Amino acid sequence: MQAPDSPSDATRAHGSSGSLIVALVAATFFMENLDGTIIATALPQMARSFGVHPADMSLGITSYLLTLAVFIPISGWAADRFGLRTVFGSAIAVFTAASVLCATTGTLHSFAAARVLQGIGGAMMVPVGRLAVLRATPKDGLMRAIAIITWPGLVAPVIGPPLGGFITTYSSWRWIFYLNLPLGLIGLFVALRYLDNTRENAGRRFDLPGFALCGLACTTLLYAMELIGRNDTPWTQTSVLVAVGAVSGVAAWLHLRRAKEPVVELSALKVKTFAVAMGGGSLFRISISAVPFLLPLMFQVGFGMDAFASGLLTLAVFAGNLSMKLVTTPVMRRFGFRSVLIVNGTLAALSLAAMSLLSPSTPKSVIVVVLFLSGLARSLQFTALNTLSFADVPKAQMSGASALSSTLFQMTMGIGVAAGAIALRIAQWLHGHDSQSVTPADFSVAFLIVAVIGLVGIADLFGLARDAGAVVSGHRAGKR
């Protein structure tokens, strides 16, 4: 391990800079996730600008999330090789510049290309910062730190739709991306001014074969899902992509298990709590990630609302998130990870199923209640899963666990959006009408499908011990 760049680095890492790192990571996490969801309510207007069907605009979301998943694995190596401040600052600069490019595009494919560049910058921001947080935070403070950096990931997908709806309704969707310019400049200044350029294991070799295989598997499989969810699916091309993705995925798994310094470290999967959070937890995140894509489309295309009104309704989910934050720690301490994840996971899946009962004639008050309850369950499950992920992971394995967790997190976000589009296509097929037309009944079926995905993920949670993650939650099995 290489020593910090200055003698005071270690002291600051455990002192006041700990809070600064948490705040910076939270801010960049918010900006990254906001850009992944803020365009949701702008999709219909963007589709008109590009001359495509609204459902085809899922490419603009999945291309961004896919790039995050592909490049996140090398974030740990880059931070070790070039230093935390260098990588973090460069990532913010690339992300901000790409945002400006997104705002100036005129076609769907050029927009997707700009989103890929934006994703490369985003892939380096949060994992590098979160790694610094995990290294500097003791176990007993992990829940608080994780809650803070998780909070933007919950807020951004909810704030994004109404903010995007407001900008889209009263201005142009292009200002959604221009908004990142001042935020990025402020973040870049803070990062360069206050972060230390600490490094660890600077001599670590870059695992090019592992990176290539993982990238190929992620790209082909997610793009295949994206094509399946579109209206003009090229089935021959999609079949080839699935085959290539499956083969490269198996090859990547075998390589990562044998390599001495793999691009993604798998050893943390031997820790039961981490493995469960990555397994069943990923299915939950897939089902939840489909909601920011489906809800705005249902409200606008299915119910006939404008973008701003559609976005305002989703604030009920934010209210649920905010309310649950007030009691998350006491609930976790009282009941423990296992009970909370199983019971609350079931409630979260049921809240998604309840969205299938909404219709254009449903009173706004009922819609708000359903979304609020969904926000409550979503917030608790999200925080519990993210905290459980690192509850029992040794410090020596924290870097690899962070990279793997971030990769799977972004993969599931991309899969969730694609799954939402596929669920909508399945609903259209079941109802036997043209894929160019979407009805409220189609969204009902789509929400039922994503609810089932979330429900299936709960099965993995039964394998947890009753006192799983107790050192972090403070829960003692047998004491109620």
TrEMBL record:
Molecular function GO labels: transmembrane transporter activity
Protein's UniProt keywords contain DNA repair: no
Subcellular location(s) per record: Membrane
Protein's UniProt keywords contain Transmembrane: yes
Keywords: Membrane, Transmembrane, Transmembrane helix
Residues that span the membrane, as ranges: 20-41, 61-79, 86-106, 112-133, 145-163, 175-196, 208-229, 235-254, 274-295, 307-327, 339-359, 365-388, 408-431, 443-465
Primary site of residence: membrane
Domain Major facilitator superfamily (MFS) profile: 21-469
CDD domains the UniProt entry points to: MFS_LmrB_MDR_like
Pfam families, sorted: MFS_1 (PF07690)
Recorded topology in the membrane: Multi-pass membrane protein
One GO cellular component term: plasma membrane
Descriptive protein name: EmrB/QacA family drug resistance transporter
Organism: Caballeronia telluris
